[in-house]
Amino acid sequence: MCGIAGLVSRDRLDESLLRLMTAQLVHRGPDDDGIWWDSEARIGFGHRRLSIVDLSAAGHQPMTSSDGRWIISFNGEIYNHVDLRKQLDASGQGPVARGDGWRGHSDTETLIECIAAWGLERTLENAVGMFAISLWDARERELHLVRDRFGEKPLYFGWVGGDFVFASELKAIRALPAFDNRICRRALGLYTRLGYVPAPRSIFQGIFKLEPASILSLTLEAALRPLAEPPREGERESVRLARYWSYRNVVRRGLANPIRAEADALEALDGALSGAVRGQSVADVPVGAFLSGGIDSSTICALYERHSPRKVHTFSIAFEEARFNEADYAREVAAHLGTVHSEHLVTVREAREVIPLLPAIHDEPFADSSQIPTFLVSRFARGEVKVAMTGDGGDELFAGYNRHFQAPRLWGRLRRVPKPIRAAAGASLGLVPERLWQQAAGMLPPRHRHLGGKANKALRVASHADSFDDVYAAFLDEWSGEASPVRGFAGTLSGLDLDLGEGAPDPVRIMYCDAVSYLPDDILCKVDRASMAVSLETRVPFLDHRVAEVAARIPLDLKVRGSQGKYILRKLLYRHVPEQLFDRPKAGFAVPIGEWLRGPLRSWAEELLDPARLAGEGWFDATIVRRRWEDHLSGRRDSTDALWSVLMFQAWLVGQREKVPLAA
């Protein structure tokens, strides 16, 4: 796991710019650094290394292929690189056949020699891993940027002062002296609705995110012609955006060729996921695992313990506030599995002390409040291990979110009612105070009582919806049915990627949409930034593409039973851990942000949401924001998520003022 950066310059390439960019990524790679540049082509790469496989100098980057044609700066892991290396040697195409021999045993060397022998696309098709890659073809004089299938590793690109730039994080790009890119108002508008800036946009104009499973290829001439909008697939010859893998096609094939028998599905899942865990447990440094006590992380830890020749080290955090503390569950699972379990008690003060760090950790506005415990557990685990497996991805593949079955059922009932009658009912529901909905949800555990307000919102939106897609968008949109708080932005979440062809069940459609948008732009972004901020590599076995292909073939009735998701995954887990340990409602990785905003964080929030300040900065409509804030303070309406998005932007903006023009 590493940090990469680079640029193509209009003028003479200044080596110091590469060093300036990579210096911003030390946290991603504290073990080594390197730069490479071609003064004639005016292109250069920078690299920061977190040594995980082959700790010797043989793994130093940027790295040149043995034939001299390819130069690579690589962030990630290729889990099957030993098999790829054997294939290369057996075919007589590798460095051994040329008489050079392998320099070391790093996966970077395997990757670049496979590219030299097989070409980029064939290598990517055969590689199992997570990665962001910059690759220079010295013969064809073409630059390629690549991102892994699900988007586990980040890669930004764009133009600064006419130069083409790219990096693992925005801070490396913002460090350039010529950086004067303005904030993108459209990106801000989408961010306030979702809590993250969706790819391919970033918060800055002219800077974009490479989408998962993509290859961006540019000639030197094209690299120096700035684009105002992100490139699209097949749009231009000199700037080519291509997909080397399609999760949409994976899901479609799965629907067409399902594994109908439960026993067969269970065996296929066990084989694929166990293989992924075994492959991802290999490293030249200690590897542990996060364990929350939920279905996903417990399954990963159970399979890891089953296949590991050594005791598995697991990590969890406990919260001082009992309502949000689920460490007892993790402790019970760890005791049953026999892992070496470590637990850190997080005080309220410690959790709140993370908040000022968030803008710098995430580089652009990001408002998933579980970013706080994710950072804390990463920092805790880094004290003992350099790599940790996580259970992320299980919800998207196996119907783990409530919206995967609640939204389709809600629409299935309401669609039969004529829209005028639904609208009249929705108007009546809108008059019911939210506190009554909260009281109706009082039978739920305290940390889940916000669901009353969400039910209120869902019913109101569904009453005016024209399609299921409208209902799903409302589940995601914190400002659904209301004016955007962003001045000059009237956009909505229309155009969500739900297309799987005729006949695809609605729950499968929204699981697919979550996997290609919410997963990379929120979940994986959160985990990458939180872990890499403390130089910890995280690995995600559920997102091995072979696991995803098996999951896509498992029918919906083996994922959702009654009002519960992840049925088949539970069956796999219960082979190793007693079912009664999981007889409880699903819980997220939560902290009581909403309550803190009414209490210890109130003065901080009041300062950031001051009407005069909002009006002067020009980004938010002070009247709209203050109305939502006052409703939250009074208890009339829980607006935690909507307000957290505004506050995280405001906090981020404080750190940008000296560098970023605020008028756009």
Textual characterization of the structure:
- By secondary structure, the protein is α+β, with helices and mostly antiparallel strands.
- The protein folds into 4 domains: 2-245, Glutamine Phosphoribosylpyrophosphate, subunit 1, domain 1, CATH 3.60.20; 249-396 and 519-582, Rossmann fold; 403-508, no CATH class; 593-654, no CATH class.
- The protein is 43% helix and 14% strand.
- The chain has 28 helices and 17 strands.
- A 6-stranded antiparallel sheet has the order 2-3-1-9-8-10. A 6-stranded antiparallel sheet has the order 4-5-6-7-11-12.
- A hairpin with a 4-residue loop joins strand 6 (129-137) and strand 7.
- Helix 3 (107-118) crosses helix 4, helix 10 (295-307) runs parallel beside helix 23 (567-573) and helix 18 (434-440) packs across helix 19 (451-464).
- The two termini are 36 Å apart.
SSE topology sketch:
Elements: E1 2-8, H1 15-23, E2 32-38, E3 43-49, E4 63-64, E5 70-78, H2 81-91, H3 107-118, H4 120-126, E6 129-137, E7 142-147, E8 156-160, E9 163-167, H5 170-174, H6 185-194, E10 207-209, E11 214-219, H7 220-223, E12 239-243, H8 247-256, H9 262-280, E13 287-290, H10 295-307, E14 313-319, H11 327-337, E15 340-346, H12 348-354, H13 358-362, H14 371-381, E16 387-389, H15 394-398, H16 403-414, H17 419-430, H18 434-440, H19 451-464, H20 468-476, H21 506-532, E17 537-539, H22 545-553, H23 567-573, H24 593-598, H25 602-608, H26 611-617, H27 622-634, H28 640-654
Parallel strand pairs: 13-14, 13-16, 14-15, 16-17
Antiparallel strand pairs: 1-3, 1-9, 2-3, 4-5, 5-6, 6-7, 7-11, 8-9, 8-10, 11-12
Helix pairs in contact: 2-3, 3-4, 8-22, 9-10, 9-22, 9-23, 10-11, 10-23, 14-21, 16-19, 16-20, 16-21, 17-19, 18-19, 19-20, 27-28
